[in-house]
Specification:
Blueprint lengths: L1 H40 L13 E7 L4 E6 L4 H6 L2 E2 L11 E5 L17 E6 L4 E13 L14 E8 L9 E9 L2
Parallel strand pairs: 4-7
Antiparallel strand pairs: 1-2, 1-5, 3-4, 5-6, 6-8, 7-8
Length: 183
């Protein structure tokens, strides 16, 4: 009988340990968002020592109650913490196209809930408020997702994530949400 009690205690300890490991990821994500928010409020400072990312703005979709800190470069480390601007594209509000990318299983799951006409508020580090309107949504092949720039070179944003949003694993499709300036 003592062996059975010891075995039960071992299983309980292992189960508790595994449960604590499962809580680490959400705790890390919550802490990361708090640090990014503080770095945004401080004018785009490095959120923690050694980070290869900095916040450059905040997007808000009022209808959905969504707020996301946008990071300066879509590196592997940055995209683990939040959506980021794809290198070589314009800063939001500049004439031309801004591409913001993020993972479908975390920071960009809300894209599936956007509707044509939804308002996006983008706040820059200096407090400037930009407005964009959802114009279109589409699914494209992963090698065909680079956008067609509008002829007038008006400010526009394209949000990109993998498709389908609800599935895990490799995919050969991308989900694009196109937004046009409303300023």
């Amino acid at each position: 009988m003592p062996a059975a009690i010891i075995l039960v205690k071992v299983f309980l300890c292992v189960g508790a340990f595994i449960s604590m490991l499962g809580l680490l990821h959400p705790a890390k994500a919550l802490l990361g968002q708090m640090l990014l928010e503080n770095a945004f409020k401080a004018g785009g400072e490095q959120p923690w020592p050694g980070a290869d990312l900095r916040p450059i703005g905040k997007l808000q979709f009022p209808r959905l109650g969504i707020q996301k800190i946008i990071l300066n470069n879509a590196t592997g480390q940055a995209m683990a913490w939040g959506p980021a601007i794809l290198g070589g594209t314009k800063f939001p509000g500049s004439k031309g196209t801004t591409i913001i990318v993020g993972h479908r299983d975390s920071h960009m799951t809300f894209l599936k809930d956007l509707k044509k006409g939804d308002l996006l508020k983008f706040r820059t580090l200096n407090g400037k408020q930009l407005r964009f309107i959802v114009n279109a949504k589409r699914v494209v092949g992963k090698t065909l997702w680079l956008p067609i720039v509008t002829k007038k070179l008006q400010p526009e944003i394209i949000l990109v994530t993998c498709w389908p949003i609800e599935k895990e694993g490799p995919t050969d499709k991308r989900f694009l949400v196109h937004l046009v300036s409303d300023n």
